[in-house]
Design brief:
ABC transporter transmembrane region fold, six-stranded mixed beta sheet, 12 strands, binds adenosine-5'-diphosphate, alpha/beta
Length: about 625
């Protein structure tokens, strides 16, 4: 119903808007792609659901039969139970009553049994699908290149993987449950009512087409609002995530008020989009109940006159017994709720669909860098950049004709003003990005034709920020070599000049670091990341010098650890303090995405050009 409405046409600021539009049949994919694996659980839930609901229908029926056969004697028991032969039923009134009471009790017992299996099946199904979807999305996300993350907010991605995925559970469990209940109730009650008295049944079911009609318009109106709502949840999450991450800056700039007002704004936007949906929802449900209620009143009026006068009112014909009337009234009561829930089911479905589209949209993101199939074989670690040009965004050239090589075991340093393209040059080597033109080679092999995994296995990357994961120091050092022994970890830490401070920590190498663990200084963190790379022992190394100021003592230690790290490795170093790369085999001076000078420290000084000026400026600064 109404699935042809595109709910997203005017959600231009939803970061997933464009990808979602390309997701075809998301719900089909969810059920057949993911649900298929858990079809056993699904069928147990389905059978449980159908039988428990059928058993739920028994009490009103038995009650009506008891009234008409035993209490008023208007009908013979075998007439009311066409499935059983007369000689199979008790003859005395007490016997018949007992028979019906046992049937009533059994219906409750069996209903409980089937309710259990219904819940077991649907919950297991929902949990499993949810789990698979979440882990698959994460796995997919990890494959995407850095360019993808550069223009997405972490909070938005988080909101897809938590809120949207959780939304699926509501639908897969409660939604499924309600739909089958609705199906069984409508078909079951409808059938019984028609069987008892088809004329009164027509009157009782009068509201159903009206409810369906209303629901259609409800869905049309609510769909786009849910899509907007999901997008604003993502934005709110981003804001919060961003602010908690930057709490230090907020405090330092006493920007609490400003940030509070921004959070209020985001939360307000969420409130508003949510309220747009609420406004419609709160009108819809009472309206449905009203319709169902009016139907009930009409049924009651017609039925009670029928029983009271003993004659069919108006154009109706036949008789209506008291017990039948009681069954009718009880059923129409039971009927109201599932039918009113019809809208809620559609509602859940729509929400789940919006979420599923966001999830699959994320899953369908293509990694821009396709994987080569050859395995890189690195023997010496000879790195060559051949006339490499690159831009992050089309038309804005960031690197232009970069051409140099790093001989095996040598160190080449990139220097120059900020924004010159040093980091970008380095990022191309592990193929975080792909050159627009030109070629990068390792031991003669074009890196665009080898597998990314093999390439990165051979490259060590020590970035400016020393990121530690939550876990122990040992785990952090052994991050790239998880099989490493304790001794190997200690060995690496010693080379990185980190052993001294680690052994003084409360639990030594088993001390927890990261968000919930001990806090380490910038210099300490840096040495742990250096130890991590020493342990990995790659042939090629990219080293982005941290700009953070550390004391001279620490600086010396770091220098020493870097020397050990780079000793026999082909190294591409990005230097901010020229003093640290004086001994590099070659220095490349970059400006505006080009190499403007190259040579050793002494050669470059002699040229008295750009490098000479940079050097003198730093010397002056230092003194
Ligand atoms: P450096 O390391 O020399 O300071 P970068 O390589 O970081 O220089 O940056 C070179 C240019 O590329 C700068 O103009 C910068 O704004 C731009 N840039 C860097 N990273 C990105 C990115 N992820 N997306 C778009 N532009 C970027």
């Amino acid at each position: 119903m109404a699935t042809n409405v595109s709910p997203y046409s005017n959600v231009e600021d939803d970061p997933f808007g464009d990808v979602r539009e390309n997701v075809e049949n998301p719900m089909k994919r969810l059920f057949f792609g993911y649900g298929r694996r858990y079809r056993l659980a699904f069928f147990v839930g389905l059978i449980g659901s159908i039988f428990s609901r059928l058993l739920d229908l028994m009490p009103p029926l038995i009650l009506g039969i008891a009234i008409d056969t035993v209490l008023t004697g208007d009908q013979e028991l075998y007439e009311a139970l066409p499935l059983l032969a007369e000689n199979q039923l008790p003859v005395t009134e007490e016997g018949q009553l007992l028979f019906l009471l046992v049937a009533l009790g059994s219906s409750f017992v069996f209903a409980a049994f089937f309710h259990y299996w219904r819940n077991w099946g649907f919950n297991l199904f929902a949990q499993n699908v949810q789990h698979d979807v979440r882990t698959d999305t994460y796995e997919r996300l990890q494959q995407l290149d850095l360019g993808f993350f550069a223009d997405k907010q972490t909070g938005e991605l988080m909101s897809v993987m938590s809120n949207d995925v959780n939304q699926l559970e509501t639908f897969l469990n409660d939604g499924m449950n309600s739909s089958f209940r609705l199906g069984v109730m409508v078909l079951g009650i409808g059938a019984i009512l028609f069987w008892i008295n088809w004329q009164l049944a027509l009157i009782a079911l009068l509201p159903v087409p009206l409810i369906a009609f209303f629901t259609y318009f409800f869905v049309k109106a609510i769909q786009p609002r849910y899509a907007k709502m999901r997008a604003s949840v993502g934005k709110l999450n981003s804001r919060l995530e961003n602010n908690l991450g930057g709490i230090e800056v907020i405090k330092a700039f006493t920007a609490e008020k400003y940030e509070s007002s921004r959070v209020v704004q985001s939360s307000r936007d969420y409130f508003d989009t949510n309220w747009e949906a609420v406004k419609i929802r709160i009108k819809f449900f009472p309206a449905i109940r009203l319709l169902a209620g009016l139907g009930f009143v009409v049924t009651f009026t017609v039925g009670s006159f029928w029983v009271l006068t003993g004659e069919a009112p108006g154009p109706l014909t036949g008789t209506l017994m008291v017990g039948q009337f009681v069954t009718f009234i009880l059923y129409t009561q039971q009927f109201v709720w599932p039918v009113a829930q019809f809208g809620e089911i559609i509602n859940m479905y729509q929400r789940a669909k919006a979420s599923t589209e966001r999830i699959f949209g994320l899953m369908d993101e293509e990694p821009a860098i396709d994987n080569g199939n050859e395995k890189l074989s690195v023997s010496k670690g000879f790195v060559e950049y051949k006339d490499v040009s690159f831009s992050y965004n089309e038309g804005e050239s960031v690197l232009d004709g970069i051409d140099f090589d790093v001989k095996p075991g040598n160190t080449v340093a990139l220097v120059g003003p900020t924004g010159a393209g040093k980091t970008t040059t380095a990022r191309l080597l592990p193929r975080f990005y792909r050159p627009d033109s030109g070629e990068i080679r390792v031991d003669g092999q074009d890196i665009s034709s080898v597998s990314v995994e093999g390439l990165r296995d051979n490259i060590g990357y020590v970035g400016q920020t020393s990121f530690l994961f939550s876990g122990t120091i040992k785990d952090n050092i052994a991050y790239g070599e998880r099989e490493a022994s304790y001794d190997e970890v200690v060995e690496a830490a010693k080379k990185a000049e980190a052993h001294e401070f680690i052994k003084d920590l409360p639990h030594g190498y088993d001390t927890e670091v990261g968000e919930r663990g001990v806090k380490l200084s910038g210099g300490q963190r840096q040495r742990i990341t250096i130890a991590r790379t020493i342990l990995k022992d790659p042939k090629i190394l990219i080293f982005d010098e941290a700009t953070s100021d550390v004391d001279t003592e620490t600086e010396k230690k770091i220098q020493k650890s870097i020397q050990r790290l780079t000793e026999d490795k082909t190294t591409l170093a990005i230097a901010h303090r020229l003093s640290t790369i004086r001994s590099a085999d070659k220095i490349l001076v970059m400006e505006n995405g080009r190499i403007i000078e190259s040579g050793s420290h002494e050669e470059l000084l002699k040229k008295e050009n750009k490098y000479y000026r940079l050097w003198n400026a730093q010397i002056e600064d230092a003194s």
